[in-house]
Amino acid sequence: MAFSTKTDSSQTRSRTKNLFYNPMFRAIIFQLVAVAALAFFFYSIINNALTNLETRGIATGFDFLSQEAGFGIGLTLIDYDETFSYGRTFFVGLLNTALIAILGVILATALGFIIGIARLSPNWLVSRFAALYIEIFRNIPLLLQIFFWYFAVLQVLPSPKQSLQFGESIFLNIRGLSIPSPIFEQGSSFIFISLLIALIIAMSYQYYAKRKQQNTGKQSPVLLVSVAVITLLPLLAFFISGKPISIDYPVLKGFNFSGGITVLPELAALLLALSIYTAAFIAEIVRSGINAVSHGQTEAAEALGLTRNKTLRLIVIPQAMRVIIPPLTSQYLNLTKNSSLAMAIGYPDLVSVFAGTTLNQTGQAIEIIAMTMAVYLSLSLITSLLMNIYNKKMALVER
């Protein structure tokens, strides 16, 4: 009996020893310890911060979000005035940040691809110009470029009374670019529904044309048909519904323009600087991605009689995208985070109106900074998720 007990104890120690030397088990234990240590670290910091705030009589919590803000914001995509709450200022700043990020990504991508392709042009003048663009704009700090566009370019424009006029209803002055704006009246929703239907029809036709080409080898005029459907169907709905969309033109009244839409100089300067700066890096990514495609692919396309434009669009770019997408994602993330420099010229983004003015008025530093960090983290994660989905779609599928 004693021998049996000794044997069981020896087997238990052996199993414990084997379990300890198991790499999977040790990895789990080390990770749990690391998570526990990290949680204790942040708990200690937050607890000490809250204790210090209570000692100084500073209130904590998110009750301040329902208090009246009492300050105006120059650019708002939703209804806002001084009587709205601090919670409303958070959403105003969030939408302004999202606006500059989305517009910047679109413009930087378009400009970056154009410059990157021009960098490889056989035309010496075009390729040298693209190289000069890249070397200049990616080596000048972004903040200096923002200052250049805002102070050296836009702030020297004339006053509203001496505005630069383009056509009959577009005016450029020191207070911004005033352009006509649409007014959506009753029945305009019918036009948006028709536009959605047109997009569905265009995508369905694109899918049909792709399957047809795979089965028969015949190409269909996808671009022409798609443009025609997306243009003509909403236009037809516009006339059928009684023209429910009118135009509001900017008119000079006193010392400024009223009516229409005014693009603030702060928005224009920030958008130009972010787009031009980021496009320089995207151009190099595009150039390296195209160079990564085997030259034999180009030679095979030329042997089949494809033009240079079709070779680039149908053969080279689709293969280069597998190399371009991962670093391109990083540039999108950088552009979104760099938009926080808007505070330097007074563009009302999240950092300016929420982490700036709201923080100064309420003193709720921990809550406001935590919410601001969470917004930028969420925007980065959403961007990464969408780009990873696109990257997975473009990846080679093994058979």
Structure, explained:
- By secondary structure, the chain is α+β, with helices and mostly antiparallel strands.
- The chain folds into 3 domains: 42 residues; 241 residues, MetI-like fold (Orthogonal Bundle); 59 residues.
- The protein contains 12 helices and 8 strands.
- The strands form 3 sheets. A 4-stranded antiparallel beta sheet has the order 1-2-3-8.
- Strand 2 and strand 3 form a beta hairpin.
- Helix 3 packs antiparallel against helix 4 and helix 6 runs antiparallel to helix 7.
- The longest helix is centred in the first third of the chain and has 34 residues.
- The protein is globular and about 75 Å long.
- 22% of the residues are buried.
- One of its GO terms (biological process) is amino acid transport.
- Keywords: Amino-acid transport, Cell membrane, Membrane, Transmembrane, Transmembrane helix, Transport.
CATH class of the largest domain: Mainly Alpha
Structural domain count: 3
CATH architecture term of the largest domain = Orthogonal Bundle
Strand arrangement within the widest β-sheet reads 1-2-3-8
- Output mean pLDDT: 86
Rg calc: 29 Å
CATH fold-level topology of the largest domain: MetI-like fold
Q: Treating each run of at least 4 consecutive H or I residues as one helix, how many helices?
A: 12
Sketch the major β-sheet.
4 strands, antiparallel
Assembly annotation: single chain
The low-confidence parts are none
Q: How helical, in percent, are the residues?
A: 55-70%
N→C terminal distance:
61 Å
| Strand-pairing-aware structural class | alpha+beta
Q: What is the fourth-level CATH superfamily of the largest domain?
A: MetI-like
Coarse morphology: globular
- Number of DSSP-assigned strands: 8
Q: Which series of helices and strands comes N to C?
A: HHHHHEEEEHHEEEEHHHHH
Beta-strand residue percentage: 5-15%
